[in-house]
Amino acid sequence: MTAAPGLSRIRIGSAPDSWGVWFPDDPHQVPWRQFLDEVSESGYEWIELGPYGYLPTDPDVLRAETERRGLKVSAGTVFTGLHHGPSVWDSTWEQVAKVAALARSQGAEHLVVIPSFWRDDKTGAVLEDRELTAEQWRELARGYERLAREVRETYGLRIVVHPHADTHIDTEDNVTRFLDATDPDLVSLCLDTGHYAYCGGDNVKLIETYGSRIGYLHLKQVDPEVLAAVRAEDLPFGPAVGRGVMCEPPAGVPALQPVLTAAQGLGIELFAIVEQDMYPCEPDRPLPIARRTRAYLRSCGA
Questions:
Q1: Do you know which Gene3D superfamilies this protein is assigned to (predicted)?
Q2: Of these four, 26, 153, 160, 223, which has the most CB atoms within 10 Å of its CB?
Q3: Using CA atoms, how far apart are residues 151 and 146, in angstroms rounded to an integer?
Q4: pTM of the model
């Protein structure tokens, strides 16, 4: 279905995450062919690669598998710990290069970059301080600017940095600090509506205030009641997802219609990729949710 004129600049897609996929290989996850079949059946045209190695990494095989299902790739995803400075550059670039090359081979134009977790998202083990020092903030900003230049020059992709729960780029204060510290010509955001709400941020306000920095969207909602319990217990993100903190739209927050309307008002083409975190999940659970979510987004004009 073609988007209504009001949201004509928004390109809707989904991702392996909406099928409970967090890892390249895991017995709790659906096979990759099932994901591709079902995301296509649900009415989506665009997908992300998900964790590197989940979908085929041979470009020709991946292209054949997506094309025969009418699918196209919008982006790849990597995790980085660039606040640690130059010592992690080589290992970071090694993983970035693999993902960026595969994404580019499929015609993608974006690389979603997620900061590393300060605590383990499964066990809750604290890996480092929750707050960065001033020097670490400087290294973070320099690192992302360098990464943006290298990825653009080598692969022709634009990085979009994804604020994420249990990372150092999470709350409104930390997101705006990051934006103010980085070159707008190099670094844009992947605004994940669920993660930003999870961390207390106002999505519409961010779009209206920093609109020129929004380069990509992840569409997600949070269950306010579950979130209240998660905050009260200071749960790590993994167990919070297991409790259902990220829920099927339109049951949660933020309301997606105002977010999409604000994004449309930016006057640029934007991907809006559905990501409903639900690892682990039963293999028959994602498809009905995906169908209902796609129908709901059509009702919003997307």
A1: Divalent-metal-dependent TIM barrel enzymes
A2: 160
A3: 9
A4: 0.96
